[in-house]
Specification:
By secondary structure, the chain is mainly α. It contains four helices and no strands.
Length: 75
């Protein structure tokens, strides 16, 4: 699976680390249901939580519609 949303990136990072949604929720300061909704693309990660999610996953995902492997962006 190639993640396309911040929630999908979050899910993969959580699984790679062997964490439960409740554990990630505690780390991010939200309730576990919020993590479930983010990971299942039911709601978008809001601006107040975005920085914490990016810190957790360890990188800034490419914006939607942008191919991170597209070298033309660097010109």
């Amino acid at each position: 699976m190639v993640p396309k949303t911040l929630g999908e990136h979050l899910r993969l990072a959580r699984i790679d680390r062997g964490l439960k949604q409740t554990e990630v929720a505690a780390l991010l300061g939200v309730v576990s249901q919020t993590v479930v909704k983010w990971e299942n693309n039911m709601v978008l990660v809001g601006p107040n939580s975005r920085t914490r999610v990016i810190d957790f996953i360890g990188y800034e995902p490419a914006p939607l519609g942008e191919d991170p492997t597209d070298d033309a962006r660097e010109m």
